[in-house]
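Following up on my earlier thread - several people asked me to post the actual chain instead of describing it. Fair enough. Here it is, all 751 residues.
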Amino acid sequence: MPSIAKVAVNDATIHFDKLYSYLVPPELEPSVWPGGIVLVPFGQGNRPRMAVVIETEAGDDPDPRLKSLLAAAPEEARLTPDLMELVRFLRDRYFCTWYEAVKAVIPYGAQYQPGVENGRPVVKSRMVRPVETIYTLTGTLPEKPRPGPKQLRAVEALRPGPRSRAELEELGISRTTLDGLCKKGVLTAQTRDRPLDLFGEVPFDPRPLTLSPEQQTACRLLEEDLAAGEPRAALLYGVTGSGKTAVFLRLIEQTLAQGRRALILVPEIGLTPQMIRRLKAMFGSRLAVQHSALSNTERLLQWRMIQQGNADIVVGTRSAVFAPLQNLGLIILDEEQEHTYQSESSPRYSAHDVAKKRAAMENALLLFASATPRTETYQAAVSGRLRLVTLQHRYGGRPLPTVDFIDMRAELAAGNPREVSARMAQALEETMDRGEQSILLLNRRGYRTVGMCQSCGHVLKCPNCSVPLVYHKPQQALFCHHCGHRISPVPTVCPECGGKMVYSGFGTQKVEEELAALLPKARILRMDQDSTGRKNAHEQMLARFARQEYDILLGTQMVAKGLDFEKVTLVGVLGIDSMLFGQGFRSFENVFSLVTQVVGRGGRAELPGRALIQTTVPDHPVLQLAAAQDYPRFYEQEIAFRRFSLYPPYCSFCVVGFSGEREPEVFAAARRFGQLLAERFASHPEQPLRMLGPTPMTIVKLNGRYRYKLTLKCRNDAPFRALLRSTLDAYAEEKLPAKAGVTIDFNSDGD
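Reply from S.P.:
Thanks for posting it. Predicted structure:
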C-alpha cells in the first residue's frame, strides 16, 4: 500500500506556506520519514524543488492526481523528532515558513539542493565532506602464501585498534598492501568524516577549581536545580570580574557527572576562543563548536560530531541553540542581555525563547548570566519566576575600576577639536609608559561619518538606502554599511551645487589615525567588522594583544564584553552620547550595559583599573549609575519607566514591517493591514492590543525598498498569534503582498 508524504517546500512565502501531498514511490519508502529532506516536482512545470517531510500517512485511497516524490536525502540528513519540534515551534512563534525554520536548525553544509545524475533528478549535498578511510583488523593472516614484511607490519600496527590510511602510510604501509589485506578478509575498510580538532593545540590540563565562598554558595543553589529532573531556570547576576565562568565550569562538571550534556551560548564570535580554551583545558576533546566564523566544512563536521553523540559540550553563538545534542542537562546563556541573541532575518527568533523551549523538552537547567541582565530577565528573577543567584564581589576581593568623566564641552572650549581628548591621550601615554595596556571603545567603524557640502548642506547618501555614506580611508572610498554600495574616488565637489565637500564625524579608523599622531610610539590594534573579516581574525588579534604585542586595543562593541587581560588597567569610552540619545525603548539599557561591561574589562588581575568616559552629559543618571556599577538602582528606574510607558515586561512588543518599491503603496498596504487587524480584535475585546502607526522605519529606504511599520503592544499568546495569522491571510486575499511584503518581529525594540 503506497504511503503519502505531506511536505513543506523551499522558497514558499509566508502567505502560501502550506503542506503539499505526494505519493512515496516503493523504492523510496525506507528513506522517507517525518523530518526527512526530499525532492519534489512542483508547480505546473514540475520543476524539482527541495522540501521537508512534515508527516506521513497511509495512502488507502490516494488521489490519482497526486505527484510522486523524485528523491530523498540520506537518513543522516533527517531531523530528529526533537529538532522537528523546534521547527514547529519556530514556525508557530515567529511567523516564518516551514523551510525557513528547517534552514535555521541545520547548518548550510548539511543542506541539500536539486541535481541531475544519469538524466535523473537527485538530491545533492551543498558541499562535499572531507572523508578518510579507516582500517580495522578483523581476521588473521593466512600462513600460505607466506605473508610479506609489509603485511605483517600492517597487522601489528592495527592490533591496538583502527587507524586511518594517512596514519598507516606515515608508517610506510602502502595502499596496495592494505587493499590486498582487505581482499583476504584480514582487514575491513570503512569511510568516515575526517575528524576536525579546531583547538588541538590547547592541552588537556584539568585543574581543580578554587571557588570563593560566594561562588560555592552559588554553585550549591544551582546544583539543586541541575539535579531536580525537571525544567528549571535561573539568573546568575554578578558584577564584572566576579567569577561567573568558574561557576559555569563547576556546573558543567556536575552535568557530565550525571551522564548528561551541556550547551554554552556566547553573544560574540570574539568571545568563543577564550571560552573554548577554558573548556578544552578542563574537559578535553569531546567539545564541539558552532558559529558563523567556521567554514561550511568545519561547521558541518562539528554538527555531525554532535549528531553522532561524540560531543558532551557545545559552545557557540546564537545558532548553536539548535545543536543536535541529545540528553541535554544544562544550557547557559552568557552575557544574556546582548541583542545578538535575537535573529534579524527570518525566522526572527530569540535564543532566549528557543533555549526555554529546549530546557522544557529536556528537563534541563537554563542559566542566564550577566553583570547587566535584561530588564525582563531581572524582573522575572526578583518576582520569583527564575531563581536569582548573586555574586556581589569581584573574585579575589579586587576592587572595581575607578571611573571618571571627561566633559567634551570643556575640551571644545579649550580649543581641542579632536575626538580623543587631551586628558584621554595623557592617560593612555602614562599607562603605556608603565608597561600596561588600554582598551578604547568606540561604537562606530569607518573613518569619518558624513560628507556634507559647505555651501548647500547636501549630504552624500546611499542611492539604495536612506543613510549617509561612510568614508573608509584604507580603501579611499565611501561605503554604505547596509547594502555595501561603494563610491570611489571620494567626491571633493558637491554633486548638487558644485560646492566643496567637507567630511565630519568620526569612526574607529579616524580615531586610530588620531592616536597614531598623538602617541607615535603606541602599538595600536583596531578591532571592528572591517579588520576582523578574515578567518580566525578575532582569535589571532586577541591572542596577540594578550601576548602584549600591542599597547592599545581600539574597537567597537566586540571589545566591551567577556574579555579578560591581566595587563589592562585603563579603559576609555568614546562616542557614547549617540547611543544614549538613540531611538528604541532599550536605549538606556543598552548604554548602561555597554558602559558597565567595558569598564569591567579593567583591573581584572593584580593591577588596579580605571575608566575614562568622554561625554557631553557627564551628569546623566544612566552614565552615573553605570560608572558606579549599580545595576539594582538602574533597574528600579528602568522598570518604573517600562511600567509607566507600557513596554516589556509589561506587554509583548511586536513590529510588523512592510517593504516595497513604491512608497505610497507600502504606506497604504501597512494602513490596510492595521485596519484588518483592528477588525479582528474588535470581536475579541478580551485580547489586549495597542497599535501605533503606520510610521516610517528609522531607515526608511533599504536596498532600494521603502519600509514602514506598525508597532503592536500586545500579549504574545496563542490567541493573539491566531488573530495575527488570520490578518495575514486576509492581507493575502486582497493581493496586497504584491505591493508590500510583510515581516513580523517579536524581538525588535522599535528602533
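The chain has five domains: 3-125, 131-193, 213-396, 402-448+505-642, 652-745. That should answer part of your original question.
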